[in-house]
Specification:
Layout: E1 19-24, E2 27-32, H1 48-57, E3 60-65, E4 71-72, E5 79-80, E6 86-93, E7 96-99, E8 105-106, E9 119-126, E10 133-137, E11 154-159, E12 170-174, H2 180-184, H3 208-230, H4 232-237, E13 243-249, E14 252-259, E15 262-266, E16 275-279, H5 283-289, H6 295-300, E17 305-306, H7 312-330
Parallel strand pairs: 13-16
Antiparallel strand pairs: 1-2, 3-4, 3-6, 5-6, 7-9, 7-11, 8-9, 9-10, 11-12, 13-14, 14-15, 16-17
Bound molecules: zinc ion.
């Protein structure tokens, strides 16, 4: 048995013991959380060799029709329907391919896929294959935004370190982000890729006017952040979360710190931030924190750049804090 890193049902989805009262038509009813255990094993059937090769050998298999020679990846047919059901043979294809359509990006995934977002989902024709494989796509250059994974972009298959024999054992990144050796290596693992040094957008030189816009925006951000700290709902949105964020904009930079004390601004340069946020205009972040449009939208629209893809979660939390403060004002 080869196991993954977690449980089939993540711990946080398991409800607490306890009960509650629901009132319907003036009568009280007692409701309690309970569970039904329905785990099951599922075979990959004829696709077993494909998943075993991915999991144990870091190889990508397809099947080739002995009559027409068409190579299908994944090898989902043992007999070719175009050739009177002639048999097909398994063969290995290369791990570099071309996106055959521009990949849509999922930013707001369901809870099941939240931990992988943002991710692109695209169809890749690998060298040696005639059909496209559906696969998740990422970038090493920071947050995944439109324009990185287009129709015709050459991509490389990357293997997860912990593989259990699922399609999510692999994903693709653009070959332009890798060295030649990495592109040529078969079975390249995620740990061999540099995720830590994406290219930061340049902040333009600030005029005196830019600097005063920056100072004014920072002043407003400071007062919003203080308001967030006084707000119980907003505090709950970041419960248990710790991040040191370096914020850079035209006119200056500061540290946005989230920890058990809440959220705060420190006017200093962080030597080892968890991630970096860059925007030419600090008012983009200000508007988000003030609940005038979401910060997540600014990230997607490329008005605000973040250095690490998974930190979209932190951006999401900042939006929720802004919403919590706005809702409290309404109450
Ligand atoms: Zn055929």
């Amino acid at each position: 048995m080869k196991t993954g890193t977690g449980k089939v049902i993540p711990y946080e989805y398991i409800p607490d013991e306890g009960s509650e009262i629901e009132t319907v038509d003036g009568r009280q009813y007692l409701i309690a959380n309970d569970a039904m255990y329905t785990f099951f094993k599922r075979t990959k059937g004829e696709l077993s060799p494909f998943f075993l090769a991915l999991r144990d050998e870091k190889r990508l298999l397809g099947c080739k029709c002995v009559e027409c020679g068409l190579v299908r990846v994944p090898p989902f047919l043992t007999h070719c329907p175009d050739c009177n059901f002639a048999s097909t043979k398994l063969l290995e294809v290369e791990q570099v391919g071309i996106l055959n359509s521009t990949a849509p990006i999922t930013y707001f995934a369901t809870s099941l896929f939240q931990h992988m977002a943002p991710y692109g989902r695209g169809r890749v024709i690998f060298r040696g294959a005639d059909t496209a494989l559906s696969v998740n796509l990422y970038t090493t250059t920071g947050i995944l935004v439109p324009g990185i994974l287009n129709k015709g972009t050459e991509v490389k298959l990357i293997f997860r370190t912990n593989r259990i024999g699922e399609m999510t054992d692999v994903f693709c990144v653009p070959t332009s982000e890798l060295s030649r050796d990495q592109v040529e290596k078969r079975g390249l693992e995620e740990s061999e890729i540099d995720w830590e040094s994406p290219v930061e957008p340049n902040v333009l030189d600030a005029s005196a006017e830019d600097t005063s816009v920056y100072r004014e925006a920072l002043k407003e951000i400071k007062s919003i952040v203080e308001e967030m700290n006084r707000n119980d709902r907003a505090r709950k949105d970041i419960a248990g979360w710790r991040r040191d964020i370096a914020v850079k904009a035209r006119g200056g930079q500061f540290a946005l710190i989230i920890d058990e004390r809440g959220i705060r601004i420190e006017e200093k340069e962080l030597s080892a931030p968890d991630f970096i946020m860059v925007s030419q205009d600090l008012r983009v972040l200000l508007d988000g924190l003030a609940y005038r449009g979401a910060i997540t939208d600014s990230v997607i629209n490329k008005r605000l750049w973040i250095s690490k893809n998974p930190e979209f979660t932190t951006i999401f939390k900042l939006d929720r804090m802004a919403r919590s403060v706005a809702r409290s004002k309404k109450d």
